[in-house]
């Protein structure tokens, strides 16, 4: 019972209510006791007085009176014999309603309800209606085009089948397999239960994760007669064995885009990709270049960057012209997913076809006695082998592995020490040992490679525990084997070279000392003495020429005595180089390169000295020329100002200018002589460096792969539009198909050769920009020092195959220990071939499972 | 006569797929085909002659063939001046069957050199010094095999709704092609831009690609006239964007001749 309006009347109301209910249910409704209807009247009177008092206290009784006045007639007509009982019931109802109304009013329910209504209707008008309109429009739009991806190398037959694959969106389907001679209902059930993916070698969830869909669906039917009724969203494919292209229709689509593709073979590590495969570790050398602090950056690099920025701004401006930003539809966003699905298509189809025989009912059949005998006989030998293998893996293998890992770690720690030494710089701006010497750099690269290999190997080993269609590690595979192969090549060539050098050490040493004395001493001496006379009829200043020549000759004499002292040691050095070449042919090359720069130090210093003299003289001449014209260089504003010189200043300046001007040719010839010698040495070193970079980073493995199997080096995709007429006539029905079909072939483009050598091109371009630019020519002409190209920039190529940060010792320890144990071979268990009792004699299995060769 | 102004072909099997090809190749009929065939033959002949002269001058070793019974053959009256030495070709073919490619080539070249035509060639080139011959031979080889490999330039754009735009450039007369595919997801806009080139204003189609530092120019080699560019732009927009198939205009098949007067002499 509800509470009364006034709390003080609760008790009385309770009593009255009980009484009333009792009377109402027991007497009134059963039609007895009609004579005495006033048994609760006393209680009611009590209650009504109490309530009246309460109402009066709250001022509601007036309202009540008015209402009663209004309803008098109604009441009167209805009042019959049971007048008083009816009145009580009615009174109760009315008061309740009033109570409710008042309660609602007091707590603001009405306004809240009104507010809620307004808000809901607003939401409906503002959001639901437009969304619904949009949705219908979208639906109308997109049902035009159906996109079907169909493997071109799918086996073709004219049997009825069920097309199974991924449904990327309502009208975007990807066909994986055509399962033949099965009921679509059964297939659907089997897909739902997971029967078709049973016996998968690796977790099935990986397929769904990488293909971006949660289920494989039944997409349609193949080779069904036109009369058969098909779900409207299903496709109806007609595959003719002789015809390349299947005819695909769908009742919901007005036009069909049939995209045929060749499936890449995952076991051959082929795959398809939208972007070219990265042979180098991506974007590494960029970060490598950014390491250089801005102050020491080269001018040409600054220039390059400025140009790039300018271009970026221009393109950005062009981009602002596009007013509307299109929101890509589901179909457009699906492309990356679809490429993954293409990569998975082969493996998935094989799995599905293997499990086709499980669809439907299958009778169970046990082996007969004779079959059992044969089976146990064949497995006995295998059991023996497996037992021995298990013994080996249990006892011998761990020890071998332990020793190997220990050796590896020892090597790694030693490498870490050496690398620390090679990379040590006294100050962050100073050059480390590896920046100065080619040998140090070569050693560093080798050590880094040795550090990186175990990590790479571990990643590649993990690949084995996954599906073959996972393509993320294929570039790693190529990189790993490329560097292994290059090192092997290097060592082989090195052994040949080394044994030759060791066998002929004395002769080689003789030759080298001969060359040294001939070119770095004798040739220089003759050229200097030639310059000291009047070279080529040029009349030089005798005194200055003699002075400069004697100076240089004196130094050369000293240097030649050094070389003579070096001569007995030279065979030992050569022998050392010969032995070092057993570590690879790149080592002797690097050593020779270093030897060349050490043994031609005097030419370098001559070049520096003569360049400095020439540069000074040129500068003095220029400023004296300004004086000669009555001008001077204003350093503060970096411009030429006019200046009033005194007569004596002018006189002295002019005399000095004439003197220096006449002395200039003598200095120029000496400078040119040494500059040319220096350039020759630089180009020699460039040859050595090119040889080194070829030995270290030639994409040999990638080139061989490109020739052997271009599918393994994807460089993007290509679409080819096929003429629709090609296949129209081959279909035997003469009527044109109601839907317009465009047939497109999707092909993988192999990586371009230019892309393989991209790094080399980049290096060549950088060298060209640095040495063959007008700036360098200007430097040469004015006698400014031509800085050698920063080793770090030049050899970004060398490091492109290595990670920016090498893995630490502990990381390597963890990685090596995380390798999975070799699998224990299980004793072979003969699985009886499952049949579902269908009538195909060609195969053991009932459904047509296909064999792949 | 051999080439025309760039003109447009449109292939459109369905409203959502279209290929726009701009080519300088005139519509082929029989005499034209024969002419092209002749030109190609002449090109190959020229290249072969260049190879032969280079071989005869630098690699041919007269001492290597004295024991050949057919060495006096060139001195015989030349009945068929253009055919190669029959016995030499036979010998070369046996080498080829044995799989010895270098030997086959040497034998073939030797017999070609000893044929009357080869000797005439050698006679004519005899006054040239070695370096000039090498330079001339290399130039002819480069020109015939690399530079003028094909007479026409053909560039095409394939538009697939929901997939993207593919740009294709034919290389040489054969099936060689260089393609680049841009997925729709990456395409920000397709627009017509204008630029000075020499003394004229060229209108060209540009694809603005998301996340790339350069815009991609369609038909970069030919840069066709404005009429073609507009037609292609309409087609591309109609094909690429959903819901605007009607703007595509049914201008299939016929190419529009780009002879309009949009020179607009802005260039100075």
From TrEMBL, chain A:
<keyword id="KW-1015">Disulfide bond</keyword>
<dbReference type="GO" id="GO:0005783">
    <property type="term" value="C:endoplasmic reticulum"/>
</dbReference>
<feature type="transmembrane region" description="Helical">
    <location>
        <begin position="544"/>
        <end position="566"/>
    </location>
</feature>
<feature type="region of interest" description="Disordered">
    <location>
        <begin position="288"/>
        <end position="313"/>
    </location>
</feature>
<feature type="transmembrane region" description="Helical">
    <location>
        <begin position="573"/>
        <end position="593"/>
    </location>
</feature>
<dbReference type="Pfam" id="PF05024">
    <property type="entry name" value="Gpi1"/>
</dbReference>
<feature type="transmembrane region" description="Helical">
    <location>
        <begin position="484"/>
        <end position="502"/>
    </location>
</feature>
<keyword id="KW-1133">Transmembrane helix</keyword>
<comment type="similarity">
    <text>Belongs to the TRIAP1/MDM35 family.</text>
</comment>
<feature type="region of interest" description="Disordered">
    <location>
        <begin position="821"/>
        <end position="853"/>
    </location>
</feature>
<dbReference type="InterPro" id="IPR007720">
    <property type="entry name" value="PigQ/GPI1"/>
</dbReference>
<feature type="transmembrane region" description="Helical">
    <location>
        <begin position="650"/>
        <end position="674"/>
    </location>
</feature>
<dbReference type="InterPro" id="IPR007918">
    <property type="entry name" value="MDM35_apoptosis"/>
</dbReference>
<dbReference type="GO" id="GO:0016020">
    <property type="term" value="C:membrane"/>
</dbReference>
<dbReference type="Pfam" id="PF05254">
    <property type="entry name" value="UPF0203"/>
</dbReference>
<keyword id="KW-0812">Transmembrane</keyword>
<dbReference type="GO" id="GO:0006506">
    <property type="term" value="P:GPI anchor biosynthetic process"/>
</dbReference>
<feature type="transmembrane region" description="Helical">
    <location>
        <begin position="613"/>
        <end position="629"/>
    </location>
</feature>
<protein>
    <recommendedName>
        <fullName>N-acetylglucosaminyl-phosphatidylinositol biosynthetic protein gpi1</fullName>
    </recommendedName>
</protein>
<keyword id="KW-0472">Membrane</keyword>
Automatic annotation (TrEMBL), chain B:
<feature type="region of interest" description="Disordered">
    <location>
        <begin position="67"/>
        <end position="86"/>
    </location>
</feature>
<dbReference type="GO" id="GO:0000506">
    <property type="term" value="C:glycosylphosphatidylinositol-N-acetylglucosaminyltransferase (GPI-GnT) complex"/>
</dbReference>
<comment type="pathway">
    <text>Glycolipid biosynthesis; glycosylphosphatidylinositol-anchor biosynthesis.</text>
</comment>
<keyword id="KW-0328">Glycosyltransferase</keyword>
<keyword id="KW-0812">Transmembrane</keyword>
<dbReference type="Pfam" id="PF10181">
    <property type="entry name" value="PIG-H"/>
</dbReference>
<keyword id="KW-0472">Membrane</keyword>
<feature type="region of interest" description="Disordered">
    <location>
        <begin position="242"/>
        <end position="268"/>
    </location>
</feature>
<dbReference type="InterPro" id="IPR044215">
    <property type="entry name" value="PIG-H"/>
</dbReference>
<keyword id="KW-0808">Transferase</keyword>
<feature type="compositionally biased region" description="Gly residues">
    <location>
        <begin position="250"/>
        <end position="268"/>
    </location>
</feature>
<keyword id="KW-1133">Transmembrane helix</keyword>
<dbReference type="GO" id="GO:0016757">
    <property type="term" value="F:glycosyltransferase activity"/>
</dbReference>
<comment type="similarity">
    <text>Belongs to the PIGH family.</text>
</comment>
<dbReference type="InterPro" id="IPR019328">
    <property type="entry name" value="PIGH-H_dom"/>
</dbReference>
<feature type="domain" description="Phosphatidylinositol N-acetylglucosaminyltransferase subunit H conserved">
    <location>
        <begin position="156"/>
        <end position="220"/>
    </location>
</feature>
<protein>
    <submittedName>
        <fullName>Phosphatidylinositol N-acetylglucosaminyltransferase subunit gpi15</fullName>
    </submittedName>
</protein>
<feature type="transmembrane region" description="Helical">
    <location>
        <begin position="34"/>
        <end position="56"/>
    </location>
</feature>
<dbReference type="GO" id="GO:0006506">
    <property type="term" value="P:GPI anchor biosynthetic process"/>
</dbReference>
């Amino acid at each position: 019972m509800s509470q009364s309006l006034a709390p003080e009347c609760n008790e009385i109301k309770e009593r009255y209510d009980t009484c009333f209910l009792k009377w109402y249910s027991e007497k009134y409704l059963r039609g007895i006791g009609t004579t005495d209807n006033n048994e609760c009247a006393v209680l009611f009177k009590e209650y009504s007085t109490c309530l009246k008092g309460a109402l009066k206290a709250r001022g509601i009784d007036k309202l009540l009176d008015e209402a009663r006045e209004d309803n008098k007639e109604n009441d009167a007509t209805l009042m019959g014999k049971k007048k008083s009982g009816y009145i009580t019931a009615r009174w109760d109802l009315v008061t309740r309603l009033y109570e409710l109304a008042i309660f609602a009013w007091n707590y603001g329910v009405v306004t809240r309800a009104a507010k809620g209504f307004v808000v809901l209707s607003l939401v409906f008008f503002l959001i639901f209606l437009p969304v619904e309109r949009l949705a219908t429009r979208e639906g109308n739009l997109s049902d035009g085009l159906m996109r079907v991806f169909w493997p071109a190398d799918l086996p073709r037959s004219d049997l009825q089948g069920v097309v199974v694959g991924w449904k990327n969106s309502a009208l975007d389907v990807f066909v994986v397999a055509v399962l033949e001679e099965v009921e679509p209902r059964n297939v659907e059930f089997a897909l739902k239960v997971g029967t078709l993916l049973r016996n998968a070698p690796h977790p099935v969830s990986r397929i769904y994760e990488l293909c971006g869909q949660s289920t494989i669906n039944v997409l349609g039917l193949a080779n069904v007669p036109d009369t058969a009724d098909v779900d409207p969203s299903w496709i109806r494919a007609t595959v003719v064995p002789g015809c390349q292209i299947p005819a695909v229709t769908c009742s919901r689509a007005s036009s069909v885009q049939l995209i045929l593709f060749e499936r890449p073979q995952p076991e051959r590590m082929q795959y398809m990709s939208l972007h070219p495969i990265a042979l180098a570790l991506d974007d590494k050398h960029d970060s490598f270049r950014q390491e250089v602090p801005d102050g020491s950056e080269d001018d040409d690099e600054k220039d390059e960057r400025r140009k790039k920025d300018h271009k970026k701004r221009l393109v950005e401006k062009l981009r602002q012209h596009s007013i509307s930003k299109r929101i890509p539809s589901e179909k457009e966003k699906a492309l990356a997913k679809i490429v993954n699905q293409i990569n998975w298509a082969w493996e998935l189809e094989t799995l599905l076809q293997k499990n086709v025989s499980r669809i439907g009912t299958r009778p169970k059949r046990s082996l007969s006695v004779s079959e059992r005998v044969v089976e146990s006989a064949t497995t006995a030998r295998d059991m023996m082998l497996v037992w021995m293998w298990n013994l080996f893996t249990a006892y011998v293998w761990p020890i071998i592995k332990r020793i190997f890992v220990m050796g590896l770690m020892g090597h790694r720690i030693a490498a870490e020490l050496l690398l620390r030494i090679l990379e040590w710089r006294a100050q962050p701006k100073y050059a480390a040992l590896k920046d100065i010497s080619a040998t140090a750099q070569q050693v560093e690269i080798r050590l880094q490679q040795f550090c990186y290999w175990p990590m790479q190997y571990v990643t590649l080993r993990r690949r084995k525990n996954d599906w073959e269609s996972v393509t993320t590690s294929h570039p790693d595979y190529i990189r790993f084997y490329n560097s292994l192969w290059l090192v092997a090549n290097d060592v082989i060539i090195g052994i040949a070279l080394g044994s030759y050098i060791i066998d002929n050490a004395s002769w080689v040493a003789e030759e080298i000392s001969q060359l040294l004395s001939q070119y770095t001493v004798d040739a220089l001496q003759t050229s200097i003495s030639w310059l000291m006379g009047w070279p080529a009829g040029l009349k030089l200043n005798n005194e200055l020429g003699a002075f400069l020549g004697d100076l240089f000759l004196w130094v050369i004499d000293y240097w030649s005595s050094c070389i003579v002292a070096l001569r007995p040691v030279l065979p030992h050095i050569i022998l050392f180089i010969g032995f070092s070449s057993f570590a690879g042919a790149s080592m002797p090359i690097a050593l020779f390169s270093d030897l060349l720069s050490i043994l031609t130090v005097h030419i370098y210093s001559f070049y520096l000295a003569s360049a400095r003299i020439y540069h000074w003289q040129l500068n003095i001449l220029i400023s004296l020329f300004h004086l000669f014209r009555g001008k001077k260089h204003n350093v503060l504003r970096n411009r030429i100002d006019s200046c009033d010189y005194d007569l004596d200043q002018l006189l002295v300046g002019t005399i000095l200018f004439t003197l220096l001007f006449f002395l200039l040719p003598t200095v120029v010839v000496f400078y040119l002589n040494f500059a040319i010698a220096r350039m020759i040495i630089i180009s020699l070193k460039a040859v050595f460096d090119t040889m080194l970079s070829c030995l270290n980073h030639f994409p040999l493995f990638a080139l061989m792969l490109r020739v052997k199997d271009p599918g393994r080096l994807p460089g993007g995709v290509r679409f080819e539009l096929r003429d629709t007429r090609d296949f129209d006539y081959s279909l035997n029905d003469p009527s044109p198909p109601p839907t317009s079909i465009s047939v497109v072939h999707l092909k993988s483009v192999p990586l371009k050769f230019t892309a393989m050598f991209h790094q080399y091109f980049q290096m060549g371009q950088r060298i060209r920009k640095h040495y063959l630019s007008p700036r360098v020519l200007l430097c040469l002409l004015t006698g400014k020092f031509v800085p050698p190209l920063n080793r770090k920039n030049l050899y970004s190529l060398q490091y492109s195959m290595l990670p920016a940060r090498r893995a630490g010792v502990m990381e390597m320890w963890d990685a090596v220990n995380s390798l999975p144990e070799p699998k224990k071979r299980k004793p072979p268990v003969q699985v009886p071939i499952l049949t579902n009792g269908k009538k195909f004699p060609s195969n053991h299995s009932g459904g047509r499972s296909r064999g792949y060769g | 006569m051999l080439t025309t102004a760039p003109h447009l072909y449109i292939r459109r099997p369905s409203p959502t797929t279209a290929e726009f090809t701009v080519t300088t190749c005139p519509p082929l009929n029989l005499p034209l085909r024969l002419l092209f065939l002749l030109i190609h033959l002449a090109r190959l002949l020229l290249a072969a002659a260049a190879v032969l002269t280079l071989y005869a001058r630098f690699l041919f070793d007269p001492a290597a063939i004295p024991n050949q019974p057919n060495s006096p053959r060139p001195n015989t009256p030349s009945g068929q001046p253009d055919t190669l030495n029959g016995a030499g070709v036979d010998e070369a073919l046996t080498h080829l069957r044995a799989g010895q490619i270098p030997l086959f080539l040497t034998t073939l070249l030797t017999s070609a050199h000893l044929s009357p035509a080869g000797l005439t060639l050698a006679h004519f080139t005899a006054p040239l010094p070695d370096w000039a011959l090498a330079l001339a031979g290399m130039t002819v080889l480069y020109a015939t095999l690399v530079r003028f490999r094909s007479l026409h330039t053909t560039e095409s754009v394939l538009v697939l709704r929901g997939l993207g735009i593919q740009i294709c450039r034919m290389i040489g007369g054969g099936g060689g092609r260089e393609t680049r595919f841009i997925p729709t997801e990456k395409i920000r806009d397709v627009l017509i831009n204008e630029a000075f080139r020499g003394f004229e204003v060229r209108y060209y189609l540009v694809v603005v690609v998301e996340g790339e530092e350069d815009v991609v120019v369609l038909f970069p080699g030919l840069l066709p006239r404005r009429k073609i560019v507009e037609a292609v732009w309409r087609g591309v927009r109609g094909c690429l964007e959903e819901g605007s198939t009607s703007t595509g205009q049914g201008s299939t098949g016929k190419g529009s001749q780009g002879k309009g007067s949009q020179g607009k002499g802005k260039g100075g």
